[in-house]
Design goal:
Layout lengths: L2 E5 L2 H12 L4 E5 L9 E2 L5 H6 L5 E4 L2 H6 L1 H4 L8 H8 L1 H10 L7 E4 L2 H7 L7 E5 L8 E4 L2 H13 L10 E4 L5 E10 L2 E4 L4 E2 L2 E3 L3 E4 L4 E4 L5 H20 L5 E11 L2 E8 L6 H8 L1 H13 L11 E8 L21 E3 L2 E4 L2 E4 L3 E9 L2 H13 L15
Parallel strand pairs: 1-2, 1-4, 2-3
Antiparallel strand pairs: 5-8, 6-7, 6-8, 9-10, 9-15, 11-14, 12-13, 14-17, 15-16, 17-21, 18-21, 19-20
Helix pairs in contact: 1-10, 1-11, 5-6, 10-11
């Protein structure tokens, strides 16, 4: 069996790396300059590409666009939900009504379809204001704003399509929940699921949790969660999968709950129908063999075992100057001979590696303690060079 990974970021590189470490032949669509170190890159041509992959092979969509587009509707050997279920990520409005319908704990919310509706409904909330784009926005669709005036102004631009390129339509107004953010992910087949190690993600661009929201500037794991909270998180997964079944569908693939822990209770901030990025990089590094075996058991409908982490892992993201709005590109990258690095926004030009996106590289550190893993990651960070290199200095502190 060969493994076909759809996507071009650090998450896809990490998934492919884990399978290649276990001796599998890995193909990436389209991949990047780093993925070809662990497999073969191919152009991605939508349905034509998917239908050309043999039935005996495994297809793993990395990012949500593929699933929302419907890759799992085209071929049975895709390990991911069909597009009707992928709406849980593809539409935040759909996801909120789904949670309300099935009694799943989430923040109080309102939907605004016009700027006028937004001005009226924002008065039901207090600062800070949370405004979310309905559709996919590549990690930029959640705004946390201090004043009502700013929430109305930016929310209106989001509705009209002038704030984020290619994003328009209704917005979700969420009640702000203070607390600790947590990424909870599971491998799912029907109503059966197994939780992956818990990982903490850092969304803000700058050290000290400042600056704009990004796709994620780093992560670490495993995060120790009390048995009582784990039980409540499992209940959220169970209710979600029950709801999917009640809607007439079967969930297969990865399911991600973006959670806020408040007074011991987990609230769902968002659904993702794939693995998180940069959380995946940490999970596969903790135990690549167990990750691969559990994915294969989930895909085949076998008995899934919980992954036992081997020590700790820390991921520090190196980003281009100007990220997330206008990242610089084309800056030459020099890398050390040793160290585990997953490639994201990297391409090749005249035989040299150059920056090609916002998040460029994921510098991985491991150790028997979180502190050791953190030190390992930051030592690697110092050995990587490109003009305009940006990173947070407080990952895993």
């Amino acid at each position: 069996m060969r493994v076909h990974v759809l996507g071009s970021g650090g998450r896809e590189h990490a998934i492919g790396w884990a399978f290649s470490q276990q001796g599998y032949e890995v193909h990436f669509y389209p991949g990047n300059a780093g993925t070809k170190r662990d497999g073969v890159n191919h152009p991605y041509e939508g349905e034509k590409t998917i239908k050309s992959i043999p039935e005996e092979d495994l297809i793993l969509p990395g990012s949500e666009e593929f699933l929302v587009e419907g890759v799992a509707n085209w071929k049975s050997n895709v390990f991911g939900p069909i597009k009707e279920v992928a709406r849980l990520e593809g539409s935040k409005v759909y996801a909120k009504f789904f949670m309300k319908k099935y009694g799943i704990r989430t923040a109080r919310f309102e939907i605004a379809e016009t700027p006028e509706e937004l001005r009226e409904k924002i008065k039901k909330f207090s600062s800070p204001y949370v405004v979310k784009a309905d559709g996919l926005a590549r990690g930029k669709g959640v705004l946390i704003l201090e004043t009502e005036e700013e929430a109305v102004e930016k929310g209106s631009k989001l509705i009209e399509g002038s704030l984020i390129k290619g994003v328009s339509g209704p917005v979700v107004l969420d009640e702000y929940i203070p607390g600790e953010e947590l990424s909870a992910m599971a491998i799912v087949n029907g109503r059966n699921f197994v939780l992956l190690p818990f990982v903490r993600d850092y969304k803000r661009l700058l050290t000290g949790n400042k600056g704009p929201n990004t796709g994620g500037m780093g992560s670490w794991g495993p995060v120790d969660i009390s048995p009582d909270t784990v039980s409540k998180i499992e209940e959220l997964f169970d209710k979600t999968l029950w709801g999917v079944e009640k809607e007439g569908y079967i969930y297969r693939g990865f399911l991600y709950l973006g959670l806020m822990l408040y007074n011991g209770d987990p609230y769902i901030l968002e659904y993702n129908v794939r693995l998180g990025d940069p959380e995946t990089e940490v999970i596969v590094t903790l135990n690549p063999e167990a990750f691969v075996n559990t994915v294969l058991e989930g895909y085949r409908g076998g008995r899934m075992e919980a992954i036992s982490p081997k020590g700790f892992a820390v991921d520090v993201v190196l980003a281009s100057r100007g990220y997330p709005d206008a990242p610089e590109k084309g800056k030459e990258i020099t890398l050390p001979e040793e160290g585990l690095i997953f490639f994201a926004g990297v391409s090749e030009k005249d035989g040299k590696l150059v920056t090609a996106g916002g998040r460029v590289l994921h510098c991985m550190g491991t150790g028997s303690t979180k502190e050791e893993a953190r030190k390992d990651a930051y030592e690697l960070v110092k050995k990587v060079h490109f003009e305009g290199k940006m990173y947070r200095e407080d990952i895993a502190l």
